[in-house]
Each structure stands twice: as structure tokens, then as C-alpha cells.
Amino acid sequence: MGMERLVVTGGVPLKGSITVSGAKNAILPLLAACLLSKNRVVLEGVPCLNDVRTMKEVLESLGAKIKWTGSVMEVDPSSITSVGVHPDLMRKMRASNLVMGPLLSRFGRVKASYPGGCTIGSRPIDLHLKGFIALGARIAEDHGFIEAEAFKLRGTEIHLDFPSVGATENIMMAASLAEGTTIIRNAAREPEIIDLQNFLNKLGARIRGAGLDTIRIDGARRLGKEISYRVIPDRIETGTFMVAAALTQGEVLIKNTIPEHVEAVTAKLREAGIKIREEEDRIIVSGQPGWNALDIRTLPFPGFPTDMQPQMMIFLSLAQGTSIITENIFENRFQHVGEFRRMGAQIQVEGRSAVIRGVSRLTGAVVQATDLRAGAALVLGGLAAENTTIIEGVHHIDRGYENLETRLQMLGAKICRTSD
Length: 420
Ligand SMILES: CC(=O)N[C@H]1[C@@H](OP(=O)(O)OP(=O)(O)OC[C@H]2O[C@@H](n3ccc(=O)[nH]c3=O)[C@H](O)[C@@H]2O)O[C@H](CO)[C@@H](O)[C@@H]1O
Ligand SMILES: C=C(OP(=O)(O)O)C(=O)O
Description:
The chain is an alpha+beta fold. It folds into two domains: 4-21 and 233-419, UDP-n-acetylglucosamine1-carboxyvinyl-transferase, Chain (Alpha-beta prism); 24-230, Alpha-beta prism (UDP-n-acetylglucosamine1-carboxyvinyl-transferase, Chain). Helix content is 31%, strand content 25%. It has helices at 24-33, 50-62, 87-92, 100-107, 126-134, 165-175, 191-203, 235-247, 263-272, 309-316, 336-342, 372-384, 394-398, 404-409; strands at 4-9, 15-19, 41-44, 65-69, 72-76, 109-113, 138-142, 145-149, 157-159, 181-185, 206-208, 214-218, 227-230, 251-255, 275-279, 282-286, 295-297, 322-326, 346-350, 353-357, 366-368, 388-392, 414-419. The strands form six sheets. Strands 21-22-1-23 form a four-stranded mixed sheet. A four-stranded mixed sheet has the order 2-14-16-15, with helices on one face. Helix 12 (372-384) links the parallel strand 21 (366-368) and strand 22. It binds uridine-diphosphate-N-acetylglucosamine and phosphoenolpyruvate. Phosphoenolpyruvate binds at residues 25, 94-95, 307, 372-373, 400. Residues 25, 94-95, 307, 372-373, 400 line the site of phosphoenolpyruvate. This is UDP-N-acetylglucosamine 1-carboxyvinyltransferase. It comes from Thermacetogenium phaeum (strain ATCC BAA-254 / DSM 26808 / PB). It is an enzyme of class 2 (transferase). InterPro entries: Enolpyruvate_Tfrase_dom, Enolpyruvate_Tfrase_sf, MurA_subfamily, RNA3'P_cycl/enolpyr_Trfase_a/b, UDP_GlcNAc_COvinyl_MurA.
């Protein structure tokens, strides 16, 4: 396949309804957690994403048997033969490191390479490793490889220096088969952590507190109930569609969503003047011409999510007045600014903050998706811009959005995929 591009012609107000897919950032830890089980697990609501394909490859490379039909995935972890993750699979996707906790606690050993940095930041895994060490693992590092070993993990108290999502998940998974009780303090509180707790408990684990800053895990002897489990909807996809509706001055009904998971985004869009109605599992966004500038700081949940920062920045590029966005989670998550400028946005970056001077219009350009959410934001920009926008680096978008262009087409968007 040649290089793929998305070609977007802007100016159409999006109208209609769209259904949100299962959450990428929930399904990835759930798939890793299957390694803790002795029995077959059925997952429902599985989104068709490149990252899910990669996690499937990771599990298969370890010996798991997987059947994937539509949005249902059946994972049989009873045939695991390896505890080593190939460096190519670690490089392809950072979330591959989520198999480390499960492999360590179930098999007493794991070997993986460092996931390495990516364009949004250096993203070390020191907090994951410190957690494993606190649980009694010995860690050896050599030529970019990490080997962790423990005859038996033992429960303990772990205070995280920062509420890291991945470290909280890895430690929860490792501790669920440890001897005794583990307490994680300053734990991440993201909805995906609650989903992981619910999934593990259904498998037979004893975990409480997810969603709060202290999580208690009473180690279980074995996990292996034969279960089926439906993953939560993707809150970042929800947020992205909300901004799409607002930015195009359209009216969109977003289905299969949990409004409480996007409160931070809803609050900011409302502050900008956008009308949003919440029902049980639906959100209706009604855009209108002209919206207010805002200040936003990204923070761990329930603060404003860093994964919505680029989408919100392109929205604020067309606001009336000057906005400031401060990125507190990743040190290098402003690479989209250069691309937004090509479309006519007026943005200056100073350290961790971006100052966005609202302009009255954006114009189409050839732009590069530098990472997943930057790519999504460029699609949003294209939908609002005059003329045609061509987005390169589409594989980043396919990591985290299922058939983005066909779903936006159903809302009336003029968007198509080309390849040469
Ligand atoms: C697959 C998945 O769920 N990805 C999400 C997850 O990533 P991820 O789990 O990688 O994000 P973390 O919460 O761990 O990272 C937050 C910050 O902590 C730092 N850190 C993290 C671990 C560590 O051992 N040491 C350390 O210093 C990171 O460099 C970063 O600056 O949460 C992020 C923050 O909400 C989201 O943007 C990602 O979409
Ligand atoms: C940064 C993201 O994902 P990951 O942690 O998988 O790189 C994201 O979903 O925006």
C-alpha cells in the first residue's frame, strides 16, 4: 500500500448521529490483563484499530490463541509459551509495556525492550519498574532490554510520584496475583482504571478503590473465571466528535457515550458558548457561529485530558479572542502547532503554554499528522477550513480512530482517503 492521505473539504456543518467505539485506552490494558487468566475470555465492543491489532500480535507472539470477529474478541491465554516481547512490537506501540505486569506475576518472569520515546514526550517507565521492585521483583537492564524476575510477588504499599495511568494499570495487574495486599497511593483515577478493576474483579480478583487516588488489591491465588466483558466507550472519541460538531456549527447526536467521562470537555465547550445536552448515554452538541476564547490546563483525570488538547487548540484557533493552553502531562505535545499555522492559525508556544489568537477563518493546506490526536485535530481543522486540506501520516490516526472518514461522511463531511 502506498502513502495514504485524508482529503478534507471544509465548510459543511455536520448533522446526524454517530456511535462511539470501545475505548482504545481501556481495551489495551484489558487485553494485557487476559494474560493473568487461566481460561478463555470474551471481550465485546472491541474497536477495530491498529493499536488493537498490535496488542493482538503481542499476545499471539507470546502463545495466546485469539479469534476476532467484528467487535468480539475471544482470547485463550492457556497456551502461553513465551515471556519475551519482541522489540519491534514494543517500538510499534508504547502500550505493549502493559503486558509486563501480568507476565511477571503469572509466570515470574518477563523480558522486554524499553518502549522508547515518541513525538509527544520521552515517556519513561521508571514508575512501572519501581512498582515491580516494591512488589519484590529483581530487575536487570542490559542493552535496552529489561528483565524482571520474581519467584512470588508480595503485596506492599506503593506511593506513585505522579498518577501515571500505565504504571497504575501495570501495578494493579501485577498485584492481583501477588501474595497479600497492595495499596497504590496517588493512583491515576481515569475511567479506564475503573474498567480494568471491573474486568479483573469479574475474572476473580479482589480490587477496590479504582477511580479514587488509593487502590487496594488483595492478591488472589488464581484468576480464571470464564467471562465475557464489554469495554467502556472511548471518551476521547466522544470529545473529538463533540468538537467536530461545534467547529462546523453543526448538530450531532453522539451515541454510546458516558457523559460523566467527558465532563471536563463539556464544561470547556459550554464556557465557549456551545450548547450541549446530556442524556443517559448520549450527548447532543449544537454549534453556532462565534465562540469565546478559553484558558485550558491539561491535568490527570478528572482534569482536562491531554488527549483532547490538540482538538481543543484547533477549535480555539477560530474563537473570538485569545486563549491559553497549558500542557502539563507531556513535555513535547505541541508539534501540531506548526501544522495548524500552515492552515492560518495564530499560535505562539512559550514553554509549556500555547497562546492562541483567534482568527476568523482557516484555509486548507497540506499538513502532517505528527501523532494520533494531532492527526484528529487536523481532520477537525480541515472540516472547518476553507478549501481542501490534505493530511499525511494517516497511520497515526488509524491507531486510535475506527474508520474515521466513513463515519464522518455519514454526518455529511466531505472527506475521503486516497493512496498512491
Ligand atoms: C494506552 C494509554 O492508556 N495511553 C494513555 C496513557 O498513557 P501513559 O499511561 O503512557 O501515560 P502516563 O499517565 O503514564 O504518563 C503521564 C506522565 O507521566 C510520565 N511518566 C509515566 C510513567 C513513568 O513511569 N514515569 C513517568 O515519568 C510520562 O512521561 C508523562 O509525562 O495516559 C496518558 C495520560 O492521560 C494518555 O495521554 C495516553 O493516551
Ligand atoms: C497518546 C496516546 O496514546 P498512547 O499512550 O497509546 O501513545 C493517545 O491516545 O492520545
